[in-house]
Amino acid sequence: MEAMETAGEIKAATVKQRQHVLGRFLDHEVDGALLREYDAGVPQEVIVEFIDTLIEKPGARKNTIGSLRAMYKFADERGYVRPNPAKGISTTYRSAGGATPWTVDDLKKFRERHPFGTMAHLALTVFMFTACRVSDAIWIGRNNESTSNGIRWLGWQPRKKGSTYVEIPIMPPLAKAIAAQNVSHVDGCYLLSSHGTPFSSSDSFRNRFKTWCREASLPDRSPHGIRKAAGHLLALEGATQHQIMAVHGHSQAATSEIYTKDVERRRLAADAVAKLASMKW
């Protein structure tokens, strides 16, 4: 996995997740002994027994099955373990829709607790007016700015594999929030830790943002939820699917469709019902 990471075929976060999952699998006890003491070709029922310990954690269950499938697929292809004992195991997992989109009231509560001029306020504004991911928010900044025809632009290549280059104008709320920060780092990053340095990782930023959310009585909100809120608001304001793709850095139209399809359905319904107005009844 480390070689695949170096080659750019797998993300560092995926390697970390699989190492954690497989470590737990090896530490699972069967008949008084840990799985790491057994042969790699364990019966499928042993794998299912381990997965059943995660029955109340559907997300962890899904990730665990994915990691085990990847490991045994690797082993099967090279003749180490045949047949693949993880093949065919159901995840019995259904997505609940991911991160909860922020409402207007959520945004108001956060700004009331973290007013203009604070790093928390800047973070919220960056997510709202760039719709960037955490993996990008922790490094984009003044070095990504440019000016063209009198318009100040922010452009960056998202770190997520397969994403397209994003370039959007810096809106007045974001420009004001950036200017309000007196602390500047040599790397030009907008978002800085309490030590005045860039965040070391996406996880370190998420932990800080969770603290800001708890302080604002929004314990179940996340940065990704702001990104989703931005997508919904763009759709409500009439942005097309391809316009949202340009802002979010999506390479597939279907990814941005989740923001436009419900809004478009409402518009179509309104147009259709309007046609009934002239009917004699």
Radius of gyration: 24 Å
- Tally of DSSP helical segments: 12
Which parts are unreliable, with pLDDT below 50 for 5 consecutive residues or more? 253-260, 265-270
Count of strand segments: 5
- Characterize the overall form: elongated
Helix content: 40-55%
Average pLDDT, rounded to a whole number, is: 79
Q: What is the spatial order of strands in the main beta sheet?
A: 3-4-5
| Overall SS class | mainly alpha
Write the CATH homologous superfamily of the largest domain: Intergrase catalytic core
Give the CATH level 1 class of the largest domain. Mainly Alpha
> What number of domains?
2
Strand content: 5-15%
Main sheet properties: 3 strands, antiparallel
- What is the succession of H and E elements? HHEEHHHHHEEEHHHHH
Question: What is the CATH topology of the largest domain?
Answer: hpI Integrase, Chain A
Distance between the termini: 69 Å
User: What's the architecture of the largest domain, going by CATH?
Assistant: Orthogonal Bundle
Topology:
Blueprint lengths: L1 H5 L5 H15 L2 E2 L2 E2 L9 H8 L6 H20 L26 H10 L5 H12 L3 H4 L7 E4 L2 E6 L9 E4 L2 H8 L22 H14 L7 H14 L4 H8 L4 H22 L7
Antiparallel strand pairs: 1-2, 3-4, 4-5
